[in-house]
Design brief:
With 122 residues, the protein is mostly beta strands. It is built from no helices and eleven strands. Strands 2, 4, 5, 6, 9, 10 and 11 form a seven-stranded mixed β-sheet that branches. A four-stranded antiparallel β-sheet has the order 1-3-8-7, with no helix packed on it.
Length: 122
Amino acid sequence: QVQFVESGGGLVHPGGSLRLSCAASGFTFSSYAMNWYRQAPGKERELVASITSASAGYSTRYADSVKGRFTISRNNAKNMLYLQMNSLKPEDTAVYYCNVVLPSSTGLRGYWGQGTQVTVSS
């Protein structure tokens, strides 16, 4: 079954950095685009960054709010997804989730990890 284990979250001061990791299993990781989402208290879950597969050129996309500060990357040999977060702001405080959308017998299905908490505070 599809599983994700996110790690790397924590408490950081404004302007600091964190690197999130997501260990994936249960599917052919290298074949699919991967996403990082986040959800802040009282807010809807939002897409932060995405990266395509090798066949699509490892193309990346970012939410406007994180462009120039966050970098998504992947290591297909290790089935790992990463999110490097620099110049963190208090508004980046949220639970961060990795995500993949896979085909199923009933259509496309999204899979989520348990999330890792990122808190940016002085």
